[in-house]
Write a structure and sequence with these properties.
two-stranded antiparallel sheet; mainly alpha
Length: 85
């Protein structure tokens, strides 16, 4: 990546950095879940939508947080479920 590309990325990242965060707290996690819900409403299953890859990144960040902070979450057949007591 050239310096000019890094500069363009930095300029684009500044406003986005308040929205796209790596969650470290429950509050940040909830913020991302709300963002994902909004993106799902907008994008749906349209993989060609301009925000589709952004939605995927948000989903991955949520999944990472859940893997590290939500006890009892299990992946079964590609979906997450909380085991019953």
């Amino acid at each position: 990546m050239h310096t000019s590309d890094v500069n363009k990325t930095a300029a684009a990242w500044a406003p986005l950095s308040r929205t796209l965060i790596v969650p470290h707290t429950e509050s940040e996690y909830r913020q991302l879940v709300e963002l994902l819900d909004s993106l799902i409403d907008e994008v749906g299953e349209d993989e060609s939508h301009p925000l589709a890859s952004f939605m995927e990144v948000v989903g991955i960040l949520i999944e990472k947080y859940e893997d590290e902070h939500v006890p009892g979450m299990e992946v079964s057949g590609g979906t997450r479920s909380v085991p019953s007591a």
